[in-house]
Write a structure and sequence with these properties.
Number of strands: 17
Distance between the termini: 29 Å
Radius of gyration: 19 Å
Oligomer: single chain
CATH class of the largest domain: Alpha Beta
Number of domains: 2
């Protein structure tokens, strides 16, 4: 029986350290998938229908499938660990009427921080711009957010791609990227496919707040968006395909995505994202023997309790 465990990383390239009742320490690495002691570590968020985070669950409350095969859960841990978080704030011309709402959301997210968190701030315009490297100076970050002005084209994909690269410089084991945008892109060099591939390979959870403003047909709600909750038009043109990318980025990396049409809804979404980061589960299981290097493994995390929603990354490439 394990009395305590701490982790030195979150995700698929992590080191998990267990301390047993006798005080002996054993380290497990989930990066190379070579030793029998290695673990796949899956960050998981559990919410109710209204987006409120649910805590207090254990291994019997979860089921994990790896390539449709049930896996034995070795550990489930829930701890408010320090976080390295990047904020991608869309300040392009398409956000002119919604920038105040986006700023409210960014500042509400910063208010959920704990003293050991650090934040990176990037803005979206004709070219990506880094307003701040990783820092825990919340006051300075809030000033940078407040001073941001809208204008230019929208290189959203390029900025998110840059953000994922910069997240490698984070000092904390838990890493997340928050994107606040209307979801439109009209000036990126990178493709959606390349960004999605980078996202699923990165050890970063992506959270998105999509500012509908009545333009994208999204649901005006501070409940995490789920496709089954509303009916979508079959086709509303190229412009309306971009918000779906933000939904997909969150779904594939285990984050949450929200649609908002007002400052109040955006702030609620940001606070729920902060709460989710503070109350996240990490499920550990041994990789199957078929985890050959480079092979894609589909992950399905299910709950054995009723009336909850599970958010977890949908797979990993064995390394």
């Amino acid at each position: 029986m394990l009395s305590k465990w701490t982790y030195c990383g979150i995700g698929l390239a992590s080191i998990l350290t267990f301390t047993n009742l006798q005080g002996q320490v054993t380290a497990f690495t989930a990066a190379k998938f070579q030793a029998s002691a290695e673990l796949v570590l899956v960050p998981v968020t559990v919410t109710d229908h209204y987006g409120k985070t649910i805590t207090g669950l254990g291994a019997p409350d979860f089921m994990v499938l790896d390539d449709r095969a049930p896996q034995h859960i070795e550990s489930v841990h829930n701890e408010d660990a320090p976080c390295s978080a990047g904020i991608v704030l869309d300040t392009s011309g398409s956000m002119r009427n919604a920038l105040g709402t986006a700023k409210d959301a960014a500042q509400a997210f910063l208010e959920t921080s704990n003293p050991q968190d650090e934040y990176l701030l990037l803005t979206v315009s004709t070219q990506p711009d880094t307003l701040s490297g990783f820092t825990n100076n919340i006051a300075a970050l809030e000033q940078s957010v407040d001073a941001a002005r809208s204008g230019g084209m929208t290189a959203l994909i390029d900025t998110v791609y840059l953000g994922l690269g910069r997240m490698r410089q984070g000092n904390q084991p838990r890493r997340a990227l928050l994107i606040i945008s209307d979801g439109i892109d009209n000036h990126s060099r990178y493709s959606k496919r390349k960004l999605l591939r980078e996202a699923v390979e990165a050890d970063v959870q992506i959270y998105t707040i999509i500012l509908d403003d009545g333009l994208t047909g999204g649901a005006a709600t501070s409940i995490p968006f789920r496709p089954s909750m509303i009916k979508k038009p079959i086709d509303k043109g190229q412009e309306n395909q971009w918000p779906k990318l933000l939904e997909e980025l969150a779904e594939k990396t285990g984050g949450l995505h929200f649609h908002a049409r007002s400052g109040a809804e955006a702030k609620q979404a940001a606070m729920k994202i902060g709460e989710a980061l503070r109350n996240q589960y990490v499920i550990g299981y041994h990789p199957p023997e078929s985890a050959a290097v480079g092979k894609w493994h589909r992950i399905d995390v299910k709950a054995r309790v009723q009336d909850v929603h599970i958010y977890a990354r949908d797979g990993y490439y064995a390394r």
